[in-house]
Design a protein that fits this description.
The chain is built from six helices and seven strands. It has 236 residues and is of the alpha/beta class. Bound molecules: iron/sulfur cluster.
Length: 236
């Protein structure tokens, strides 16, 4: 059987087996959108219509905001949300008390420049760790009051993290959107680069990754170096 690539895990794909035993993949989007072939040429390695079977893409009745760290996962989540028909109109960055990005540590001004480049409004919410939950819920209330219908996250596979955000987002009356949920980390890397995004390594755990990678482009070479370490998740 030919590897189908993205079609294998796409909610719009349907495998068909011919009388001779060959397997084809039928694209459900082709019925309503001429950009897609009914029987795509395999393997499909890049597709703007791809939606993972595991992704959480609830229907919404208005614009959505995007939880934005300035990193690759939030950028790809916003991109995939757009391709799935959502209207991301605001980026929300839950920052450290000094305004820098939590965990990555880059300055808040970089996030502001990213928002400018995307033509998106930015809401930066500085908070200390002990006040995070209260500030997060306060921010959700603001989104709701402003007419936002949901919040997009770039979570991949950490179920406890996803559940924490899902509970609070639903309690605030907002849809919880996870375009990348369940994606294999290697697929995230491949689709991030294939979509034309560029990123730079800004932070490493020195006990796992050599600090000489700091400042390096996030590319196939860096991903290969991470993949060589069994104790490292290539999506961080
Ligand atoms: S939308 Fe793309 S990935 Fe999904 S079935 Fe169609 S061709 Fe395959």
């Amino acid at each position: 059987m030919i590897a189908a690539g993205l079609c294998e895990t796409c909610r719009h794909a349907r495998p068909l087996t011919s009388a001779r035993g060959s397997t084809f993949w039928q694209c459900g989007r082709a019925a309503t959108d001429r950009r897609f072939a009914r029987y795509p040429r395999l393997p499909v390695t890049r597709c703007d219509g791809f939606e993972a079977t595991t992704a959480k893409l609830p229907a919404v009745g208005g614009p959505v905001a995007v939880a934005w760290s300035g990193g690759k996962d939030s950028a790809l989540a916003r991109h995939r949300a757009l391709l799935s028909g959502y209207r991301p109109a605001l980026l929300v960055n839950m920052a450290s008390a000094d305004g820098s990005v939590r965990f990555h540590g880059v300055g808040g001004e970089l996030v502001a420049r990213q928002a400018d480049a995307l033509g998106a409004e930015l809401l930066q919410v500085p908070t200390a760790p002990e006040a995070y939950e209260a500030r997060f819920e306060e921010m959700l209330g603001q989104l709701r009051a402003r007419g936002f219908a949901g919040l997009v996250f770039g979570n991949l596979h950490l179920a406890d993290v996803q559940a924490w955000f899902a509970t609070r987002t639903a309690r605030a009356g907002l849809a919880h959107v996870e375009p990348l949920w369940g994606w294999a980390p290697a697929e995230v890397e491949a689709q991030f680069l294939a979509a034309g995004f560029r990123a730079v390594v800004v932070s490493v755990m020195e006990d796992r990754v050599d600090r000489r990678w700091l400042g390096a482009p996030f590319d196939e070479r860096f991903v290969a170096a991470l993949a060589a370490r069994p104790d490292v998740d290539v999506c961080g």
